[in-house]
Write a structure and sequence with these properties.
This protein has 416 residues and is of the alpha/beta class. The chain has 14 helices and 14 strands. An 8-stranded mixed β-sheet has the order 1-5-6-11-10-9-7-8, sandwiched between helices. Strands 2-4-3 form a 3-stranded antiparallel β-sheet. It has a 3-stranded parallel β-sheet with strand order 13-12-14, with helices on both faces. Strand 12, helix 13 and strand 13 form a beta-alpha-beta unit. The radius of gyration is 26 Å and the shape is globular. It starts with 15 loop residues before the first helix and ends with a strand. Its EC number is 6.1.1.21. It comes from Eubacterium oxidoreducens.
Length: 416
């Protein structure tokens, strides 16, 4: 079989020019999140398959890259089920690993715990613009904070980061899982049908109100129920404040605390924000993960035409590991989509500290080389970036490549 030079489908090689932008963006994200008190952690790229397939990850559980058992544990010839040959899976997000991590180390962590994670995840998804099978996620999470201070901090930290990267006029769409359920219950849907209803509702942006109505009727739901349900969305469109309208209309189906929670988050963020964005209540926002229990939110970029990140509250996940629930909330930036937008806009990394290349002639004496290295160290201490390399035969080409890498100053050292 011939060797292939191309990466596997849905994954990509990253060229130096893109890598510069990725490094810069990661640094901005880390610095901003650290300024909000988030602490970097790291989890393995693989998890036990049971952790990844416990019906919490929604559609992503169908997209797991599963890992075969190894050595003597793998007996394909006598195995009849997947469980007999698979024991691990590649993580499809950073939230499931985080809750396992927290469950394992809670006694050694502060409360509340503000975690920062950046790492690759894998999903056997259909590749398309801004969507890969291996991609970077940048997550911040707060565990142990039951109040909406968590949501407010997460939204402000994320939007401040996006603002520092130059993004403007974007939206943070916000909703509440309890509102989704209240609207469905009020309209007459059975609780067992909620997930099916929400999957169809999630298509509202693509197929519109009429399309959602048709799909719900085709799925077997009563026309009167569907009309009552979609009438709520029409009422929200006409209302001055959609959250207040729903609270008044749904009555006992929607708790006062749910209304106040959303209004407080929106008000606090609008008051404190520094980036150029709008908070928008979106009753059609669903988010695919089954583990969300309360507030959910999403980044909407007009130039992308889709989500560039999102998150929400997942107060029941830690309890799956420990038997005791811990309030938790997180926000994930769609790193690959942010990089795509920056590259398509012609983004250039802001000028960094002076970069100098020291080109050393071959045969340079050890004594002189020591002096050059000492000089380089002194310059590095002063904040400069110094590259010490041997001089190539094709010095002109070498200098051109160094210039492309940002080395605007080149010093040559000859053995004479």
């Amino acid at each position: 079989m011939a060797l292939s030079k191309k990466p596997v489908n849905g994954m990509k090689d990253i060229m130096p020019e893109e890598m510069k932008i990725r490094d810069y963006v990661q640094n901005v994200i880390k610095e901003t999140y650290r300024s909000y008190g988030f602490t970097p952690i790291e989890t393995p790229c693989m998890e036990n398959i049971a952790n990844l397939s416990n019906k919490q990850g929604g559609e992503n559980e169908k997209l797991i890259f599963k890992v075969l058992k190894r050595g003597e544990k793998l007996n394909v010839a006598e195995s009849t089920t997947e469980e007999e040959v698979v024991d691990y899976g590649m993580r499809y997000d950073l939230t499931v690993p985080l809750t396992r991590y927290y469950s394992n180390h809670a006694n050694d962590l502060p409360s509340p715990f503000k975690a920062l994670q950046m790492g690759n995840v894998w999903r056997a998804d259909r590749p398309q613009r801004g969507r890969y099978r291996q991609f970077m996620q940048c997550d911040i999470d707060i565990l142990g904070e039951p109040g909406n201070l968590a949501e407010i901090e997460l939204i402000l930290a994320t939007t401040t980061t996006l603002g520092r990267l130059g993004f403007k006029k974007f939206e943070i769409r916000i909703n509440e899982r309890r509102i989704l359920k209240a609207m469905a219950a009020y309209s007459g849907f059975e609780e067992d049908d909620y997930d099916k209803v929400f999957i169809i509702l999630d298509k509202m942006d693509k197929i519109g109100l009429e399309g959602v109505a048709n799909e719900l009727v085709e799925a077997g739901y009563a026309k009167e129920t569907v009309e009552k349900y979609l009438g709520l969305f029409e009422g929200i469109e006409k209302a001055e404040n959609g959250i207040v309208y729903l609270a008044d209309t749904l009555g006992d189906y929607m708790e006062e605390e749910t209304k106040n929670n959303l209004l407080e988050i929106i008000s606090a963020v609008d008051t404190a924000k520094t980036a150029d964005f709008e908070m928008v209540f979106d009753p059609t926002l669903v988010r695919g993960m089954s583990y969300y229990t309360g507030t959910i939110f999403e980044i909407a970029m007009p130039e992308f035409g889709g989500s560039c990140g999102g998150g929400g509250r997942y107060d029941k996940m830690v309890g799956n590991f420990t038997g005791k629930d811990v309030p938790a909330c997180g926000f994930s930036i769609g790193f690959e989509r942010i990089i795509l937008l920056l590259m398509e806009s012609g983004f250039k990394v802001p000028k960094q500290p002076k970069k100098t290349a020291y080109l050393i002639e071959k045969g340079y004496s050890p004594e002189k080389l020591t002096q050059v290295i000492a000089k380089a160290q002194k310059a590095r201490e002063a904040g400069e970036q110094i590259l010490v390399v041997r001089m190539n035969k094709n010095k002109k080409f070498q200098k051109e490549k160094l210039a492309q890498e940002g080395y605007d100053n080149i010093e040559e050292f000859f053995n004479r």
